[in-house]
Structures are given as structure tokens and as C-alpha cells.
């Protein structure tokens, strides 16, 4: 599993928040048991319905836990049969004219 640093200089604090949401498993935080997507545990679930569920969970978690950002797009896909990639496009909330930063959140190669 690799976590990419391709987001560049755009909004590093928001990118870090996305990584926390992505890598934290639900139930891992005792005082906030609903926090987290738990992508690590879902990496081997790579059929189409599971990929769509990952995207939905990611969007749901950002909406629930981090009002500082908007997530116009989250995409989980397999560019080939041995790789799984999760990308998120994000920008600061209430800044519709702001540039959208696309960050590769996770990449798994078998």
C-alpha cells in the first residue's frame, strides 16, 4: 500500500484530514466510533460494487466529519487487474471558485 504525495502544495491540511479519514477504521477511535472509512481493510474487496461502496463511504465521512472541505469527486478504480487506486478531488468549503486538488489517497499493487 502506498500513500501518494501528488497533491502538491494545494491545501496540505485538508489532504492530511482526508488521509486520516481514509486510514482510520470505524471503531478505532473510542470516543468517535463512526469516524473513518477503513480503506486498508477494504483493499482486497475490488469488485465493482465494493469500489462504489468505498466511494460512497468516503464522501459520507467527509460530509459528516470535516466541514472545512468539499469533495466533488472520489473515485476508486482498477487501472489494471493488479492495481487498486483511490483518488479524491477536494477544495476548501465555501470556495466554489477555488482550484480542485486531486490527490491519490491509496494505491495497492498485488
Residue share in helix: 25-40%
Strand % is: 25-35%
Helix-strand makeup class = alpha+beta
Q: Main sheet?
A: 3 strands, antiparallel
The succession of helices and strands, N to C, reads HHHEEE
**Radius of gyration, whole Å:** 13 Å
Quote the distance from N terminus to C terminus.
9 Å
- Total helices: the number is 3
Shape: globular
Description:
With about 110 residues, the protein is α+β, with helices and mostly antiparallel strands. Helices cover about 30% and strands about 30% of the residues. It has three helices and three strands. It has helices at about 10-25, 40, 50-65, and strands spanning about 70-80, 85-90, 100-110. A three-stranded antiparallel beta sheet has the order 1-2-3, covered by helices on one side. Strand 1 (about 70-80) and strand 2 form a beta hairpin. The longest helix has 18 residues, at about 50-65. It is globular. The protein starts with 11 loop residues before the first helix and ends with a strand.
Amino acid at each position: 500500500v502506498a500513500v501518494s504525495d501528488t497533491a502538491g502544495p494545494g491545501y496540505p491540511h485538508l489532504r492530511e484530514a482526508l488521509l486520516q479519514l481514509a486510514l482510520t477504521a470505524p471503531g478505532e477511535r473510542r470516543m468517535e466510533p463512526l469516524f473513518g472509512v477503513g480503506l486498508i481493510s477494504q483493499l482486497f474487496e475490488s469488485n465493482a460494487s465494493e469500489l462504489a461502496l468505498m466511494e460512497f463511504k468516503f464522501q459520507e465521512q467527509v460530509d459528516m466529519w470535516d466541514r472545512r472541505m468539499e469533495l466533488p469527486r472520489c473515485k476508486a478504480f482498477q487501472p489494471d487487474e493488479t492495481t487498486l487506486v483511490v483518488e479524491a478531488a477536494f477544495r476548501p468549503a465555501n470556495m466554489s471558485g477555488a482550484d480542485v486538488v486531486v490527490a491519490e489517497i491509496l494505491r495497492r499493487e498485488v
